[in-house]
Amino acid sequence: MKRFAPLLAAAGLVATTVPLLSATQASAAPAPDYGARKPAWHRCGADTPASYECATIKVPLDYSRPQGRKLDLAISRIKSGNPAKRHGVLLLNPGGPGGSGLDLPLLTAEAMPKEVRDQFDLVGFDPRGVGQSSPISCGLTDAEQNMDRPYRKATFGADVAWARTVADKCREKAGAVLPHITTRNTARDLDAIRAALGERKISYLGYSYGTYLGAVYTQMFPNRTDRFVLDSGVDPQRIWRGMIQVWATEAEPAFKRWTEWTAQRSGEFQLGDSPEAVSQTFWALVARADKDPIVVDDMKVTGDDIRAARGVFFYPAQAAPFVKSLKDAADGKAPATGTGTATDTGTATATATAELKRVFQKPEPASDNGTAVFWSVVCGDTGAWPRDPEQYRRDAVKDKAAYPLYGDFASNIKPCAFWQRPVEAATPMKTRANVMTVQNEWDSQTPLTSGQGLHRALKGSRMVLAQGGEGHGVYLSDPNSCANAPVSAYLTTGKLPAGDVTCRTQPGTAERRASQTPQKPLPLPSVPGRF
């Protein structure tokens, strides 16, 4: 099945092992002989502001052998424009794993309130193995990068072969580096950046996978943790297979909410006048597409393709015209045009028709750097992945029945079944962490239950929950989010709220969300198979 482009602009938005490092090595600070070297800053590019500076520092490939092989770590910064109010440095991470964060200072500087901006030098970086930081590759083809594989008895053997091939190619191409591309080592890199900048502590803003990276840092370096905002949380108890499976479990309540929303607007969308009827319409469309693929432009869309678009159902105002356009295409109807009505359903439907072409369009072959780092981290962080392919088969069959939208995709076999064993155990969350976690109620990539799990795991944390909030990424992503004010207040003052904060954000229509999209949106994970 083809690898998808991002679903919608607004939807843009993985057995215990014996660690090979000693406890002292595992938590040790970077060695002073390299950590103390000051970066040689230079202008990042002729077409970027002079205030946007870049540099490269050296970090150990293996922190248990600090004098051994080194990796380049590309970093960037924009200094505070108000030295009198400067508090320190704010490191930024967009998620992934495998996402580049080198340009985040530019993007966040535009969106960040001045009272927060004045407090910090904004510091971005490409994590080890990513982008300009000694990038790795597995030599994967475009098809091999696709992880959205539905379970079918006839194709399971091919899925097992795919998973084994990915693991084998990664081992062959980057085997000496892969064991060290992990969250714990990236957390050590954060501390190496801190040391290179001459800072006693760091503050941090991390999204999605970046929340887990930040959480691990708080456990490994608690005395160097300052103001930490963990936005759209990864549950440490679910790394990483459970975080993929949560896409399936939480797609079901999102789908139910969509059927209810759509049934209330049956006159607009003609998909059914009750939630049950809307659901029946949808599943009939899936079955129809499995037998006779729906032609969208010059592409053929199967029922599995439609199910793989599970993230769209977290946005009812976009999912309804999306499904209607698919149904119209199946029925051979021309797309609707704008009606000029108050709801402007025709415009939304016409927009969704255009989106169909983009959603199901096979992208141009892409570098596998992000995919290589993704598997390195999700397979290398934990040894909890099953090793027996039959376990994946059983789980996929069971979860397809329990979570029909995406259950078999989530539980089907992954390359981690054939990955080498991790060199370190996962990080236990035992140390108190006075940090802020932030969450939208309807987040497709790190659903609410995941964000709540992160909050529970980090004793001392405060959670800001935007009820009604839709989308992956909250702070600076939606100018109207009710979560922006408490996050900005914490970053400005360093004072956490006395208790958790729950506020209400009005879910946006497709038109409102489009009008709110920043000119340079934050590069949060926009592919369904990323955090």
Low-confidence stretches: 1-34, 336-344, 509-521
Query: Which structural class do you get from the secondary structure elements?
Result: alpha/beta
Judging from the principal axes of the Cα atoms, what is the shape? Answer: globular
What is the rounded distance between the termini? 21 Å
What is the radius of gyration? 23 Å
Number of helices: 19
Helix content: 25-40%
Task: Count every beta strand, where a strand is a DSSP E run of 2 or more residues.
Answer: 12
Strand percent estimate? 5-15%
Largest sheet descriptor: 10 strands, mixed
Q: How are the strands of the largest sheet arranged?
A: 1-2-3-5-4-6-7-10-11-12
User: What do the pLDDT scores average to?
Assistant: 87
Question: Could you explain the architecture of this structure?
Answer:
It is built from 19 helices and 12 strands. It has 531 residues and is an alpha/beta fold. A 10-stranded mixed beta sheet has the order 1-2-3-5-4-6-7-10-11-12, sandwiched between helices. The longest helix is centred in the middle third of the chain and has 23 residues, at 241-263.
How is the secondary structure organized here?
Elements (H helix, E strand, L loop, with lengths): L22 H5 L4 H4 L6 E2 L9 E8 L9 E9 L9 E6 L10 H8 L2 H4 L2 E6 L30 H19 L8 H15 L4 E6 L1 H12 L4 E7 L9 H23 L2 H4 L5 H17 L2 E3 L2 E3 L1 H6 L7 H16 L13 H15 L9 H12 L8 H14 L4 H5 L24 E7 L5 H10 L4 E9 L13 H10 L7 E4 L5 H7 L15
